Amino acid sequence: MPGFLASFFKKKEASVLGVDIGSSAIKVVQIKKKHGRAVLETYGELALGPYGGLEVGRAVSVPGEKMVEAIKDLLREAKTTTTVCGAALPLSSSLITFISIPPVPDKQVGDVVSIEARKYIPVPLSEVFLDYSIIPKEDTYVSQDESTKTEKQNRDVLVVAIHNQYLSDYQGIMAGSGLQPNFYEIEIFSSIRAVVDQGVTTVMIIDMGARSTKLYIVERGILRASHIINKGSQDITLAISKALAIPVNEAELLKRSHGLKGGPEYKELAEIITVNLDYIFYEANAALLNYQKKYQKNVSQVILTGGGVLLKGFVDLAKISFQTNVVYADPFGKLETPAFLAEEFATAGPEFAVAIGAALRRLSEMD
Questions:
Q1: What's this model's pTM, rounded to 2 decimal places?
Q2: Which domains can be identified in the chain, with CATH numbers?
Q3: pLDDT, tens digit (0-9, with 9 covering 90-100), for 41-52
């Protein structure tokens, strides 16, 4: 991705980075605030496969020193000019759960959450960083007679736990790369910030990465449910490689070049891709129906993020599967960008949602 965008803007103060380390690639976005608007300065992406001895597009576990090398390479190629950043942590590094607690005074909520969280966290609480957020009740008009009853309702709480060792390792990578994160947040929350507009509608985000596909159901801008499907874009590549007896790098190129739109001569390729996507969509629909049944609410839109959703023909198959409005995420739409690159930003948007979301939070904290 082009680092040359930096040349369109003069050196400024108060630039910030959003950093997203995924399973197969790293993404960075640098933005600043100008006249009250977030302005894109530069952005970049770097595949991690080669740093772990694998092909581009493959999910890979990269040792800390190699990860530092990759981040430095990307920052240099993107021509970033600041080390101030917000960093997103992968969903796989955390445990996210929803619990219900009895009505207690606010000062006791933390203690009650810790007690309840022990039921869901398989390691001692001393080994994890624990955070929580009270999920607001929906706005309702309550009569005088009902007010006492309402006050006694349980409170829904979103709980997030990250293992201390993982966080320490991640902090070491950031420090080794010369970056200065002001915060670390789970990628879910970065993505929501970048792709969901404030409103009362309920949406589902499908984030298809190399190793897995994540589902987030968001209502009024608040996470209400999440689910991981252990199949991602690299599974499609590996299935193509096996079925057609071709090297993985050739299978990846074939997938990216033609997807589901290759025509009659690529019928077998389309069939292999469709089988894999059908599994993902089946699992996603099951999670969707479970939510709708539990809360008696319909999801009005499906938003696609992650590099895997850019497969040709993906959105058409998704529309058939979900029978609702399906759109690509447009996180660059929240930034001021060069107009002549609008088409490129529309294409790149789903891959950069997490990085943009982290950068937007960091920028807002500088006000």
A1: 0.90
A2: 1-83+330-367 (3.30.420.40), 94-163 (3.30.1490.300), 195-328 (3.30.420.40)
A3: 999 999 999 999
